[in-house]
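Posted in: Structural Biology > Protein-Ligand Complexes

Title: Requesting predicted complex, magnesium ion in pocket

I'd be grateful if someone could produce the 3D structure tokens for the following input. Sequence and ligand are given below.
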Amino acid sequence: MDYKNIRLFLFDMDGTIYLGNNLFPFVPELLRLIREQGKHYLFMTNNSSKNINGYVEKLKKLGIDATREDFVNSTTVTVNYIKKHLDGKKLYVFGTQALKDAFIAEGIDVHEDYSEDIEGIVMGFDTELTFKKLDDVSKLLTEKDIPYIATNPDYVCPTEYGYVPDCGSIADALYNATGKRPLFIGKPEPAMPLYAIEKMSEIDPLVTRENTLVIGDRLYTDIACGINAGINSMLVISGETTQKMADESEFKPTVTVKDCSILLDELK
Ligand SMILES: [Mg+2]
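-- Reply #1 --
Done. Output follows.
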């Protein structure tokens, strides 16, 4: 791969630029160098907008000055999808109040009660989940054939003690009840990197799919996302994937490397 030609770097975070609370030592210089060369990077996460402040804080603690604009998150990309494909539709939103507020702020017609004229369903990771919502959406999915999208396909979300069910698990519960699955927006679906490319090319018209690189440590999210979006992907063996797992996987990245330090070496 011609690393010098890459103009947009889409980084996963945990396992890619840090591991837990340890920043990989070459990362600050790498990020600085990318921008010094007039190129761009973004951090791509399946998390919602609400959690971005936490990431900004975390990166700050680790020594990286980031702003909210440095992140592509599932809320922003879902809003973009709704505006493009479900504009003006009456949507049942299965999600937290924060998610509904974010949609309302964008002028989206948000509803939280079943009614016969609902025209689409949008689901997020809902920490305010109630049985009423499961009942409403089961009824809508059973009775109607309407667009149904969900922010992210993750099965679990980490907590201090382990995991809780995330959006993908609730989608599975609804599938068991209704036989219907949502269109997911987050990784490994292609919407997120394609949105990042579109947005960045408004700032820098030289950014294209061909010179964008997805970098991550997970084969079935980060690398699959790159493949699904038709863009180059770099697997790093600095997180949860081992070389053996990479060798045996159906997901083949453009390149597999030990960690992101290769980028620093190549860009210098
Ligand atoms: Mg990761």
